[in-house]
Amino acid sequence: MTLANPSLPSFASRIVPVIVITDLRQAVPLAHALLAGGVDVMEITLRHEAGLPAIEAVARQVPQMQVGAGTVTRAREMARARDAGARFALSPGMSDELVQAAFDCELPFIPGVMTPGEVMRAREHGFGLLKLFPAEQAGGVGMLKALAGPLPEMRFCPTGGVSPSNLPQYLQQPNVAMVGGSWLTPAAALEQGRWQDITDLAAQATALTLPPIGT
Ligand code: 3PG
Fold first, then answer.
1. Protein fold of 15-208
2. pLDDT tens, per residue, the chain with 215 residues
3. Closest Cα to atom 5, ligand 1: which residue?
4. Residue 192 φ then ψ, to 5°
5. What is the spatial distance between Cα 20 and Cα 214, in angstroms, rounded to a whole number?
6. Are residues 103 and 114 in contact, defined by beta-carbon separation less than 8 angstroms?
7. Separation of 159 CA from ligand 1 center, angstroms?
8. Distance, CA 124 to ligand 1 centroid (Å)?
9. Ligand 1 lined by 182 (C-beta under 6 Å)
10. How many whole angstroms from 148 Cα to the centroid of ligand 1?
11. Residue of the nearest CA to atom 9 in ligand 1?
């Protein structure tokens, strides 16, 4: 699969877990738990003060994990994410300042969009892969089908409301590169260190992204 955003690291997983880490000690075991379930990418959000140190810990200690910074909504956060070791950044939206900061930092960036006009503005900035957020509220699979008509070259990472029940429908859309979601990393499992549960959730999701045996 060719992703148009320059320098975006390559990863095997088509599922990007959206993670809120509240305790730095969760970061490295969580990265290993996801890898054990076949998920080699993680979006650690900046919604909690533990987010940046968690990115740093994973980047240093689990180099086989492609760790990105999520919920990057202010330009100044872009350099902080890069300095912590994030390999890429995602945002629920897109602003000119944020785009400029990503270019200045040379940090691969996946901006968020919700409308055709926003998709076109992102394309003008040179982005080919966008986060559709919030995906279900934006119209879900129907919206992705509708966008494919006038904007066929654009690829999306729908996030928001994606779950195992609708995951296959999303992944079947030709303009969906991967999906994001928080269901792989429930807060309680993180707090209680139930890493095997997370590996199981990751493995179940990974299995849904693969064609059934014999096809
Ligand atoms: C995000 O921040 O990208 C979303 O909150 C994830 O949405 P979900 O919790 O519905 O998966």
1. TIM Barrel (3.20.20)
2. 334 566 788 888 999 999 999 999 999 999 999 999 999 999 999 999 999 999 999 999 999 999 999 999 999 999 999 999 999 999 999 999 999 999 999 999 999 999 999 999 999 999 999 999 999 999 999 999 999 999 999 999 999 999 999 999 999 999 999 999 999 999 999 999 999 999 999 999 999 887 656 65
3. 160
4. -95, 0
5. 38
6. no
7. 6
8. 26
9. yes
10. 23
11. 182
List the chain domain ranges: 15-208
Say how far apart CA 141 and CA 173 lie, in whole Å. Answer: 8
Q: Find out whether the peptide bond into 134 is cis, omega within 30 degrees of 0.
A: yes
Pocket flag, ligand 1, residue 73 (CB < 6 Å): no
pTM of the model: 0.94
142: which residues sit within 8 A by CB, 6+ positions away?
none
Q: Decide whether any atom of ligand 1 lies within 6 Å of the 112 Cβ.
A: no
Rama region for 108: left / alpha / beta (φ>0; ψ in -120 to 50; rest): beta
